[in-house]
Amino acid sequence: VRVRPLTCTETRRGDQQVVHSLGHGTVHVTAPRQDATFGFSAVFDAGASQEAVFEGSGMRHLVELAIDGFSCTVFAFGQTGSGKTYTLMGPLTQSKTQPVALGLMQRSFACLLEQSRSHGSDLALSASYLEIYNEQVRDLLSPGPPCTLPLRWSKTRGFYVENQLSVDFESLEAITSLLLEAGSQRRQTSAHALNRHSSRSHALLTIHVHSRAVSMHPAPRGGLWGPSACSSKQGTLCFVDLAGSERVKETGSSGELSVEANNINRSLLALGHCISLLAKSRGKQTHIPYRDSKLTRLLARSLGGSGITLMVACISPSSRCLSETLSTLHYASRARRVTTRP
Questions:
Q1: What φ, ψ does residue 118 adopt, rounded to 5°?
Q2: CA 296, chain centre distance (Å)
Q3: Which of 32, 77, 100, 105 lies closest to 274 in space, CA to CA?
Q4: Domain limits of the chain?
Q5: Percent above pLDDT 70 for the chain
Q6: Beta bridge partners of 139
């Protein structure tokens, strides 16, 4: 759980801080007629740096698991304006003089490239990037306007996006510029009463990690040692920046913004329903309605399948956002009870 600082607008308005970190993974919410304590793997208060979140959330371990061939996912959840995109990507306008603000994505890329150099293994990296906007899956890396792609299902692959473009990369600069260009310029965003840069779509950036370890064997008749073919591993590292849940009354949305908000809330409701059922099942053969939305279909393997998943719940400490904050914390508590089979 990450608690963002109070904004200037909230401070000027006289909003009270109702969320407090008690340390040891505990967060306390206190307000009139509301008093609750929640426990999580880690809690980062308003003073926590981007580096502290990266190291303390277990993100570095996820990178290592992806290299080892596992399917790893990290997704940020919370109401609109709670700091999800900042946590994953850092500020929208970045410069080389601001490395301290880099988000989980860029730090993971750097860690991935660093590990590939030190592992002594042949590592091939590629990236694909899509968004779900108004229940349409769109490729953010395709040339021209984002094109809508069909979502398919197969017994071997599960749910997958057909004809999705994948781009190879070998440097931190290449993947970062790709991320910023697609994420900041092509992804659907709008301004409303609660957020000047509100994401109007769910974005999924997937890094495909193909590692092939090379071992040496003696050549015939006492010659020089040479390389031998050996097993390869294919892992993935998926970053999911969920659009924020919002109340149309609070955001002042109307027209197209209102339609977007309804689609966002509907898909988040489907995600919450799946998480609730996964948390309850405990080994029972319960039907999980992944097909209720495009988002839950694409996250099916991450939520209750063979993947390893980290959820970062972002919340506001403002008294005005108390209802949404409690909703996010209950949501995250249910997600923590879900067990996958990596």
A1: -90, -20
A2: 14
A3: 77
A4: 56-93+100-190+198-212+234-244+255-313
A5: 82
A6: 130, 147
> Do the annotations mark residue 316 as ligand-binding?
no
User: Does the annotation flag 328 for ligand binding?
Assistant: no
39 annotated as a binding-site residue: no
d(CA 89, CA 25): 24
80 assigned to a ligand binding site: yes
Residue 177's contacts (CB-CB under 8 Å, 6 or more residues apart) are none
Query: With 80 as the cut, is the pLDDT of residue 83 above it?
Result: yes
Task: Give me the percent of the chain exceeding a pLDDT of 90.
Answer: 46
Which are the contacts of 334, defined by CB distance < 8 A and separation ≥ 6?
Answer: 272, 275, 276, 279
78 marked as binding residue: yes
pLDDT at 115 (0 to 100) = 81
Q: Is 84 within any annotated ligand binding site? A: yes
Report CA-CA distances (Å) from 337 to 40, 73, 231, 242, 334.
11, 16, 34, 20, 5
Is 85 annotated in a binding site? The answer is yes
- Quickly count: other Cβ atoms within 10 Å of residue 95's Cβ: 8
Query: pLDDT tier at 189 (50, 70, 90 boundaries)?
Result: low
CATH homologous superfamily for the domain 56-93+100-190+198-212+234-244+255-313: Kinesin motor domain (3.40.850.10)
